[in-house]
Amino acid sequence: MSASLKAATGPKTTTGKTPATVITGFLGAGKTTLIRGLLERADGRRLALIINEFGDVGIDGDILRSCGSPTCTEDDVIELANGCLCCTVADDFVPAIEKLLARPDPPEHIVIETSGLALPKPLVQAFHWPAIKSRVTVDGVIAVVDAAAAAEGRFAPDPAALAAQRDSAGTIDHETPVEEVFEDQLLCADLIVVNKTDLVSPEDLARVETLIREALNRDAKLVRASQGAVDPRVLLGVGAAVEDDLANRPSHHDGEDGHDHDDFTSFVVELPSQPDPAALAKTLEEVAGLHGVLRLKGFIDVPGKPMRLLVQGVGTRVQTHYDRLWKPDEPRRSRLVVIGETGLDHDAVTRAIAG
Fold this sequence. Notes:
Largest sheet: 7 strands, parallel
Strand order of the largest sheet: 3-2-4-1-5-6-7
Helix content: 25-40%
Structural class: alpha/beta
Order of helices and strands: EHEHEHEHHEHHHEHEHEHEEEEH
């Protein structure tokens, strides 16, 4: 791989193992943007990227390959779509690591972006597999937090609602699936990037950081960021050897025989060309609010425009921008990946978006 980071640590750890960094964070937190910034600051060090997504269509890998840097070629990214790395270790993850290590120019550092619904701890446990145990170490787990989403209460219950629930029923329901995933990602982290700080007030930011601290059972460094901009020297070279420290990283799913994502669902909406991106964004905001959509992302063909439109939605926040030229032999398709909790009405959402 040609991606590089001269300022970070050397190609091998003191144990001779190749370091790997796991980047986790809930849907839309800004993991891909963080990694793209890592690539844009490349300078002489080989990085390998393993990208995993929840859903049938991979968007994040395509975004990274289109970043405009020579480090983002087809060979620089291994994309494992339609699954969760923590569930497909034997079939997908270990073979991907082995493939990278077998290259004539093996990577000096491996960066792994998990799906927004993945639990990092089971993935870290995979580094005990005999095929990779003696060759790779987990340098650190980085959790990216969407400060605006956290401030909106997406990851923690409304205190007033909890109090009313306690008064009326005498009990409180268990945490939601969203809260459990969010907390599991924090509990495994060595570094927490509080992202999108430009979207919140200082008071809300302080409240978000308090929420994070209250969820932790140990010290973890917090770093504030806007648009995923973090010095690579902070992200890489942590030296935590996380695979040997799992006992100090509890999970809601400890003791379970397996792990699945039955609480969440995803599907793809195919659209015709969209002549009015602003109107599309407004429609998507309305649909997300009405149906409780967690995440929207995809590429749109706008007639008369040589570039494709990238759509990114987190809850009712929808952003669009043109990310790259359509390739000469590339079908100009308009497709959106929709992710929500199980029970989301696929047909109703599709009708509302497609019209």
